[in-house]
Write a structure and sequence with these properties.
alpha/beta; 5-stranded parallel sheet; Rossmann fold; 340 residues; 2 domains; Aminopeptidase
């Protein structure tokens, strides 16, 4: 048996990998950074696996060779490669029937749904994350939560947080920490803190690697986009449910999504799933600008791409506007304009 890296330019090898994935009921994920293939002595492809950032994905073994330890070989290869790149905290999203092959390799279940199992290679990694979260010294009666990407923080986000905070004794505000957005996490977090500094009952957190984003949620085992959105929402609800139980969160607040069918579907799924975790979901109407158009980060980035930054005063707080107009913010605007 031989394992070698496969480059996307190797059309023949990639075609073989796609065929193997398809035979096992999988597809090729859109986000792949490194792909490995395991061949037998006759040069026949027997297993494949890939990773993106610190997440293993597209794991498949030829059904004629399952039970022969090939999954362990190719996953071990990926783990060594990731360790060599300084990535030590690893994750796997996979189908239920694949867990029996992956768990013995040092991966531990975080949460699961009927379709997806989310695992990590730290025995108590998620527990340590939850215990690290700040919380009130005395238990308030009503505790809320907001999870946002804030790319960038807008007046819509500010309105959502103000509304949620006014409804609760304490509010946990989570900012998605994965750096896959136009505005880096450090900037997004800073702008969120500045834009909510006037609200006294907020506890700020990053999501860490646990509350997943659409950019890193693997799609290789779910083909239809709507089904993928629902699967992600259900997994998010399970992860958030564990966090909510520990922090005593009773209510989660989200903004409605008139411009994004996928996010609207996500919110609908969350409204069905979160009550099962003991959390009420509140969908708050999005505020509008002076032209009666909904305020969103998508509009902010679109106007930045069009070079209309001076018109953003109606859409973002002063702190966000000041950043966008700064030298650092102008670099983000240039990148957005170059991405046309």
């Amino acid at each position: 048996m031989q394992i070698r890296q496969i480059w996307c330019s190797d059309k023949h090898a990639m075609r073989e990998i796609l065929e193997l994935l398809n035979r096992e009921g999988l597809s090729l994920d859109a986000n792949l950074e490194y792909t490995a293939a395991l061949y037998d002595d006759a040069g026949v492809l027997r297993a494949t696996a890939s990773f993106y950032q610190n997440t293993l994905r597209c794991l498949a073994v030829d059904r004629d060779m399952q039970g022969e330890g090939l999954m362990a070989q190719i996953v071990s290869h990926l783990v060594q490669e990731l360790f060599s790149r300084g990535r030590h905290h690893l994750f796997v999203y996979t189908k239920r029937d694949a867990v029996k092959s992956i768990a013995p390799l040092g991966f531990y279940e975080i949460v699961s749904t009927d379709k997806v199992v989310f695992l990590e290679n730290k025995r108590d990694g998620f527990g340590q994350y939850i215990r690290s979260l700040n919380r009130p010294q005395q238990a308030p009666q009503r505790i809320g939560a907001v999870v946002m990407n804030a790319n960038p923080f807008s007046l819509g986000h500010q309105h959502l947080v103000e509304h949620a905070a006014s409804e609760c004794d304490a509010l946990h505000l989570f900012v998605v920490s994965e750096d896959v957005s136009a505005f880096p996490f450090a900037v997004r977090e800073r702008l969120v803190r500045k834009g909510t500094a006037h609200i006294p009952n907020i506890f700020h957190h990053s999501t860490g690697p646990y509350l997943v984003s659409s950019a890193t949620f693997p799609s290789y085992f779910i083909s239809e986009s709507d089904v993928l959105t629902l699967a992600q929402a259900r997994l998010d609800a399970k992860v958030f449910g564990r966090i909510a139980h520990d922090l005593g969160i009773t209510d989660r607040f989200v903004g409605d999504e008139p411009l994004s069918p996928a996010t609207a579907l996500y919110n609908l799924a969350m409204s069905e799933e979160l009550p099962q975790e003991g959390v009420r979901l509140h969908i708050i109407p999005r505020i509008k600008d002076s032209n009666m158009e909904p305020i969103s980060s998508t509009r902010v980035r679109a106007m930045m791409k069009e070079g209309r930054t001076e018109e953003l005063c109606d859409l973002v707080p002063e702190s966000t506007y000041t950043y966008i107009m700064s030298d650092e913010g102008k670099k983000i605007t240039e990148k957005l304009r170059e991405s046309r």
